[in-house]
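Dear support,

I submitted the protein below through the web form. The confirmation email said the job was done, but the results page showed an empty box. After a refresh the structure appeared. I'm attaching both so you can tell me whether what I see now is the final result or a partial one.
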Amino acid sequence: MDTQNPSAPPRARSAVGGNPPRSRHQHGGGVIHENTRHTTRFVVIGNHLVQHPELSLLAIGLGCHIQSLPTGAGADIKSLTARFPEGPTRIAAALRELEAHGYLRRERHRTAAGRIVTRTVSCNQSGPHREAADPGCPDHPARPAAPPRQPRPAAERAPQPHPRGTHGTHGTHGTATATATATATATRKALPAVPQPGLAAPALLQEATDLLAGLRRHDPRLLLSATDTAHLAPGIAAWLERDVPSTAVRHVLTTDLPDDPLRRPAALLAHRLTARLPPPPPFRAPADPPAEWYRMRNCDGCDRGFRAPETESRCPGCRTEASGDRASGRTP
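What the results page shows now:
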């Protein structure tokens, strides 16, 4: 009995969390946990978040990351995009999921300097199921009461996606679409101002409108709406009234365009019409009217051809001779 088995453990391993130890051979498959108790740099996250049946994997991971951040750390879309490889569109969608299920609140506050800042409030319990923190427990300090949430204007409210597995009614979908359209219209920047013609002649404006409508034949990206065309037409007319041919105006607007997709082609055209506007043409004195051109006719005296008004029947030579005879008293 004095021989020891070196492969036997010195003592039985204690189960983490109070669960009895199970052999690997007794496990039917799946995940096997080898847990080590954390003593520093850890955060407690509930299974209601990490095993949420409706949140996406990106939203669950983002919620866990935000709960592990210290107070005051950046949790906006720009900071998270710089931290993770996902783009801003996917991160924004994940934040909306967490906000819809009560794990996140974004509140706008005005600082003492007058700036508007957005505070991100991370909740370790979802909204209606949030448990009250125990003041006596050092691991779960009492969270200070959040200030009342100020309602945002309707134009700033983004439509919330429906939870996964549920379907909104037709009316709800229509309201969300209308809200998104109103938000996009309100946030769209106005087009830059364009030069105005000295005389808004209808024929000049029509020629300018036809020129703008034909730009899409030179580049499909220059397809303009009726509103953008009406805004740009006076700028084209200002060029045309400065004796610039329509072909030269079209060349200025369609050459050296960027290779990237044009997000706002009307804004690019408005900038070019303003930045490259030529000066007015130099002053030119009106030319003398051309000499009157008379039809060729025959002289009644000498039958020679000459040009003269219909009132004259004799050529200049016969008229001179006749005037000399009258002066000398002779009869012709």
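Response: this is the final, complete result; the empty box was a page-load delay. Residues 131-146, 160-176 have pLDDT under 50 and may be disordered.
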